[in-house]
Specification:
174 residues; alpha+beta; four-stranded antiparallel sheet; 34% strand; globular
Length: 174
């Protein structure tokens, strides 16, 4: 049995200039620990955002990523930071912890579709002690954003090609 699918606003889910194989999606907000981040919606509209199962890590406009990283660090302040690794610059050292708590991260898309990410969509582990926020900032606000497959994990992503829309279902299919 598959989960209930929530579809993004069809008018906002369009095939754009990147070709027929990419759906543009409209991010309306990002929340950390239930608090919507103060990101102007125009930030997400400058170059747009696509959903891509072939891109591993979600790429956000620089100011959106900065807001996400800052809020996440504030909620993770009980854990020591760790040096950046590759494209990941928000990292933590959990070597002295047997358990830890992370804030919920959620994305809201056009049509008021909210996607609450699971742990593996929020953090990426590089060994048993180092974890990093599983997002990266684009180098320029004019670069297209990408909602990557790490954040799509555990969701059923429904492509209604005939209807020109896309939807998410929490938990995928059983």
């Amino acid at each position: 049995m598959c989960s209930q699918i929530s579809y993004l606003d069809a008018a906002e889910t369009i095939k754009g200039y990147l070709g027929a194989s990419f759906y543009f999606i409209t991010i309306t907000s990002i929340s950390v620990a239930g608090t919507q981040l103060p990101i102007n919606q125009a930030v997400f509209q400058t170059a747009g955002t696509i959903i891509d199962s072939g891109t591993v890590i979600t790429r956000l406009p620089p100011s959106a990523y900065s807001a996400l990283s800052t809020a996440f660090k504030q909620h993770m302040s009980n854990y020591p930071s760790s040096p950046a690794f590759s494209i990941f610059d928000t990292c933590f050292d959990l070597s002295n912890y047997t358990s830890f708590a992370i804030p919920k991260v959620s994305f809201t898309f056009a049509g008021n579709v909210e996607v609450d990410l699971v742990l593996s969509g929020i953090l990426v582990a590089f060994d048993t002690t180092k974890v990093c926020l599983a997002f990266a900032g684009n180098s320029d606000s004019g670069d297209t954003g990408i909602f990557g497959n790490t954040q799509q994990k555990t969701f059923e992503v429904a492509y209604d090609v005939a209807g020109g829309r896309l939807g998410f279902g929490a938990g995928g299919c059983n």
